[in-house]
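> example.struct
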């Protein structure tokens, strides 16, 4: 049986998670939400992190609470930071406000920012952790992946017919899927910090890789990334002024991903052709697959992925489906490699 205090804690942490989800998903910083109660247990302030350079969630909630925060409780989805970055440490803000208790969902995996819980406890603040931890981890799964691995979380998106063709025999590929699926891709792009293609796709399809059709403008458009040695003409759509573009004139995809991570990119969307997709898959660099399968048959044409060096069914790259749904008349399948499934269970 859940006692009253636990029920209260759960309610406020769920609200903090709702606030966290309001933050920009592709921002270099984690999404964090905070709720501050006064000493009587009434909500005095709320806040969430609105992006790099803006106040952290705790600071925003404390500002809204004002003097009512003294003797109260703060619920935060991520361990309050203990380092001096573009903004001051949140632990200092909580201590200065006189908060008596801090409840956070999950620890900060970034060693440069962690340690806030110990600092608060040493100052006499009651600290409780682990409440709704799984939900909090899900809010920042790609950001935490970058901290843990040193590279962005890579989602490979592709569209194909039922027989696995991403283009017809004459090279045409517009449009395999319907309008609803294409709109869904734009929503997926909006959640990512970078969109990656190879020079083959850039030259053949001349894509723009922009985000269109959203209800509200993005704080910043995804970085367009091209990997490969073949130069692109200055007239390519990827060099339009609609979004920034970065070209990696080499084929070392691992190195390119590490450089993107150093620049704060934690979620990259792979929209490249079969060759680049095969390279990332073969090197274990794909963390999620989003496939849009159209109810159509071509019988010939370009395959969705190139050779993986697999010669027997036993060597197949196996995926664990996490979602299967209809998007218009197309089927969207979201799946993760089996090694990712094991890591998240």
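> example.seq
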């Amino acid at each position: 049986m859940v006692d009253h205090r636990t029920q209260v804690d759960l309610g406020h942490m769920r609200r903090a998670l709702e606030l966290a989800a309001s933050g920009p998903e592709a921002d270099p910083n984690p999404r964090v939400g905070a709720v501050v109660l006064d000493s009587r247990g009434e909500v005095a302030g709320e806040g969430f992190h609105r992006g790099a350079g803006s106040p952290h969630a705790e600071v925003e909630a404390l500002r809204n609470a004002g003097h009512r925060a003294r003797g109260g409780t703060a619920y935060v989805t991520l361990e309050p930071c203990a380092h001096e970055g573009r903004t001051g440490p949140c632990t200092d803000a909580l201590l200065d406000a006189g908060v008596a208790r801090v409840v956070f969902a999950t620890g900060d995996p970034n060693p440069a920012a962690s340690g806030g819980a110990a600092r608060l406890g040493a100052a006499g603040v009651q600290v409780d952790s682990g409440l709704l931890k799984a939900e909090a981890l899900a809010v920042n799964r790609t950001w935490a992946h970058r901290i843990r691995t040193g590279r962005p979380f890579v989602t490979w998106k592709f569209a194909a017919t039922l027989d696995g063709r991403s283009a017809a025999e004459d090279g045409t590929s517009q449009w395999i899927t319907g309008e609803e699926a294409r709109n869904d891709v734009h929503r997926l792009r909006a959640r990512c910090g970078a969109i990656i293609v190879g020079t083959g796709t850039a030259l053949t399809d001349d894509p723009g890789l922009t985000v269109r059709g959203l209800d509200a403008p993005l704080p910043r458009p995804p970085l367009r990334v091209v990997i490969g040695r073949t130069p692109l003409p200055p007239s390519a759509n990827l060099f339009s002024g609609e979004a920034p573009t970065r070209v990696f004139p080499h084929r070392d995809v691992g190195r390119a991903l590490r450089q993107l991570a150093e620049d704060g990119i934690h979620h990259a969307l792979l929209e490249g052709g079969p060759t680049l997709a095969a390279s990332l898959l073969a090197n274990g660099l794909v963390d999620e697959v989003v496939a849009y399968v159209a109810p159509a048959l071509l019988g010939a044409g370009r395959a969705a992925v190139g050779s993986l060096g697999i010669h027997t069914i036993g060597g197949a790259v196996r995926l664990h489906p996490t979602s299967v749904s209809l998007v218009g008349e197309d089927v969207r399948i979201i799946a993760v490699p089996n090694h990712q499934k094991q890591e998240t269970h």
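> remarks
The chain has a mean pLDDT of 91.
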